[in-house]
Design brief:
Elements: H1 4-21, H2 27-33, H3 41-62, H4 67-84, H5 91-119, H6 125-153, H7 156-174, H8 208-234, H9 244-260, H10 263-267, H11 269-289, H12 293-321, H13 327-353, H14 360-381
């Protein structure tokens, strides 16, 4: 039912997400070894900052130069940054590299989502985004687990070079795919295309509601992945077991994407988002109020189930509401909100946590409050926003 291009895109996404996620369990300790333990919140925050700042450009370029060039640039940045981590021996150098590394996710996922939207019909869009999410989830699951194993059995340098190598493989896969942007829209790249002359070149007004919901729902993601390495250590999960949270989270996300990928196609985007919000809130309460390995991993499973329903639904809803000729900008608008939510969550978590284990429950309770606000927002706006583009055309 899907083209070869679709499956190649899934493979490329798997390799890409594995590349940078395999670093997550080890980076907090690495930064601490450099003398920057108090800057742990910046590991994700700086990454998402440049990802968010690059979205306006990646969205515009995806609608003018093409989907594939945008993806290639993102994977190339990931390849180069992974290679240079072993050479960063100062806190400033490390944080600067994290800043540059963020450009990778500012470009690759934008081009990917626009490419998938081009080749998948509306009736199967939720399912397709779910399958694409399965590929990303596999990368997110295998990455941290593989990263912890490499760090435990080899060296951090080996980990960094393997991360770079996976990004290179993702880049090679993209070279086998065919561009989907209509020839009439394509332009040769020029520096003038990077000039933003109006806010409409940055933001797609049709998708502001999904974007606002994305910001509120993704704030916990940045918060959780900032404190998970420390919470794992507090609970005695060290060495190879340090990646257990990521494994449980991603396995649950993978299962729900496979089994419920068409849920939003069948029942509607907003109803599925409302249901997933309750699951995410339950997971955060579990992480805050059940300070044990069992509660910790149960919270990971629930968080995976909730986000496994939430993410592909948000993506599909964004594409539903976008104009075909501005699809890249619509996707980048949603991703800007995503990066803002993750970055705010990471900074908030770093500030609240402050390397004090007793503060961990407050991080998760604040995250639950953000999701609750997102739920209220959806309930308040659900009757004002059409389900698909055709209703507003």
């Amino acid at each position: 039912m899907y083209t070869a291009g679709f499956w190649l895109m899934c493979l490329s996404s798997l390799l890409f997400f594995m590349s940078f996620n395999m670093l997550l369990p080890e980076l907090p300790d690495y930064l601490t070894s450099l003398g920057g333990g108090e800057y742990k919140g910046y590991i994700i925050a700086l990454f998402t900052l440049t990802a968010g700042l690059s979205r306006p450009f990646s969205g515009k370029l995806a609608d003018t130069v093409g989907r594939i060039p945008v993806m290639v640039f993102g994977s190339l940045v990931c390849f180069i940054c992974g290679f240079f981590y072993p050479f960063t021996v100062t806190v400033v150098g490390f944080l600067g590299l994290r800043l540059l590394h963020g450009f990778s996710t500012g470009f690759k996922p934008t081009g990917t989502a626009a490419y998938i939207a081009d080749i998948v019909p509306l009736a199967r869009r939720g399912e397709a985004m779910g399958l694409l999410g399965v590929a990303g989830s596999l990368g997110m699951a295998a990455g941290p687990t593989l990263g912890s194993w490499l760090a435990a059995h080899f060296t951090l340098d080996v980990l960094f070079y393997c991360s770079s190598g996976l990004a290179l493989l993702s880049l090679i896969v993209q070279g086998t795919m065919t561009e989907t942007l209509a020839p009439a829209q394509r332009q040769r790249f020029s520096w003038k295309l990077l000039k933003i002359e109006s806010w409409q070149e940055v933001v797609e007004p049709r998708v502001l509601v999904p974007a606002a919901a994305t910001l509120l729902f993704l704030l916990p993601f940045g918060a959780i992945f900032t404190v998970v390495p420390d919470q794992s250590r507090v609970l005695g999960l060290t060495g190879e077991s340090k990646g257990l949270f990521y494994l449980c989270y991603t396995a649950a996300s993978l299962v729900v994407r496979l089994l419920a990928g068409r849920a939003s196609d069948r029942y509607g985007r907003v109803p599925v988002l409302i249901g997933s919000s309750f699951v995410i809130i339950a997971s955060l309460l579990m992480l805050a109020l059940a300070p044990s390995v069992t509660g910790f991993l149960t919270g990971a499973v629930l968080f995976g189930l909730g986000t496994g329903l939430n993410s592909p639904t948000i993506y599909a809803w964004t594409v539903d509401l976008s104009h075909p000729e501005r699809r890249g900008r619509a996707v980048s608008t949603m991703y800007m909100a995503l990066e803002a939510g993750i970055g705010i969550g990471a900074l908030l978590a770093g500030w609240v946590f402050s390397n004090e284990p007793a503060h961990l429950p407050f991080v998760h309770l604040a995250s639950a409050g953000s999701v609750l606000c997102g739920l209220i927002f959806l309930l308040a706006t659900r009757r004002r926003v059409p389900a698909v583009l055709e209703e507003v055309a």
